[in-house]
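Ligand-bound model needed. adenosine-5'-triphosphate.
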Amino acid sequence: MPLTLYNSLTRRESPFDPIEPKKVRMYCCGVTVYDYCHVGHARAYIVWDMVRRYLMWRGYDVRYVQNFTDIDDKILDRARETNSTMEAVAQCFIDEYFADMDKLNILRADEYPRATHTIDGIKRLIHELENKGYAYASSGDVYYNVRQFTDYGKLSGRKLEEMQAGASGRLETAEIEAQKKQDPSDFALWKSAKPGEPAWDSSWGKGRPGWHIECSAMVRDCLGETIDIHCGGSDLTFPHHENEIAQSEAATGKSLANYWMHNAFVTVNGKKMSKSLHNFITIRDLLKGNWSGDLESNPPAEGGHGGTAPTQEGSQNHSDNAKAVEPMAVRLFVLMAQYRSQIDFTSEAIASAKNGWQTLKEGLLFGTQHGSKLGWDIEKIDYLTEQDSTLVQQFQAAMDDDFNTPGALTVLFELAKELGKEGNVLVHQGKTETSPQLLQQKWVTLVNLAGVLGLEVQPEAETEISVGGLTDGEIEGLIQQRKDARKAKNFAEGDRIRNELKDNGVTLIDQKDGITIWHRG
Ligand SMILES: Nc1ncnc2c1ncn2[C@@H]1O[C@H](COP(=O)(O)OP(=O)(O)OP(=O)(O)O)[C@@H](O)[C@H]1O
Ligand SMILES: [Zn+2]
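Prediction:
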């Protein structure tokens, strides 16, 4: 069965057919670096990392490029507020981006072009557009003439007549700019220098590039004129991606990308999690437990909004270990939904992801915890061949269906639960119900398929926290206390302990022989 994916351009699912066999050229719009990343950003980059990893697992040689927008009014504002420079603010938040995304096990891109490093390519492209009649200079600015590009609106489905004045970009609301445009829908390719702002020489005078042109230039410089997949959040469809298409396709006469893919939002009470709405939580605050489930009525402290100085280390609030979330639980929170479905950020959704990760983690650790007792030689396992092919096919069928990660996770949970149960039986009864050989095959399958989704057990030191569930020893201790309480006919205490374990995602099974076995989930 071929891999099929939803193409925003055609508005339907179609088989994936790359330009060059077994090669994929993929471009993802990156962050504007003026603040810490929030959970919405985490979703976007976890989703594209999952797509990239899956394509690699399917045998494609993927070249993945993601930019940093390092010149923008928001960065300049932040530099002014903090008495810093645009370069320093951008570099600071590029470093912080990597710190957060590395924790979430997001593979580094093959290339990270930056707007300020692409000025020559940007100017070249604008000149081409000018020569071809798609761009015009106006008092030091250069604008794209959208009426010249007959396909304008093909991605977003918007008709030019319906577009509002000023809808051409996030920065062009100033009336003075509107007066320089021939049509309200035209958008800036180049903006004349403002006093005190960074500027580059050009034939139109000193100035800086608009936002949309940077991606067109970077795609071309790094990947070529037509690429396989162009992706980003759904808010980028219009105007950003529509404008990228207009710029690139007018210049080259070729399609910019064959497949356009967009991730849905993380929302809070149905609204996009975003800095401007102050309903966000930074990735680092989530990991540290410095967050409230009710962001609408109880927004994070000022520090949680990304800090007032570029050097500030996230929120100043105290961390709450019980609320701390392991990075892999954040990944699971994202992957438990298909990438085109909205995810509402709630304490319940996070709790469910934490529980889910405990179950998966226990399954993933089965081999190292119990393998030698079962006579496995972990060093000699052939991870490629010793898999359960039926389950691998089930996983692949789900993923081939437009990256249906919830479907793929069902396979992982089935395996992890079984391994978790068998691990308990082994601890309590000294042997397992399933043969060690079959268990090895199941474990290898789980480790491999979880790895395709980037779900890996990380060393404790890298996870910020030592909680996220009770350890096996703590669980055994509580079970013993419950046993003692019940022996002393203190059944209320026995029930309390059972409930405490349940709240921590641990289920007890009292067997007829008086032995209590347990499993997570
Ligand atoms: N709440 C969200 N859910 C999913 N993706 C998001 C969310 N917020 C931002 N993104 C995506 O993250 C990527 C980088 O976003 P960008 O740096 O432009 O931030 P932004 O959308 O302006 O965020 P904010 O509105 O919080 O400032 C884009 O692809 C964007 O669509
Ligand atoms: Zn872009």
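Residues 29, 215, 240, 244 surround zinc ion (ligand 2) (CB under 6 Å).
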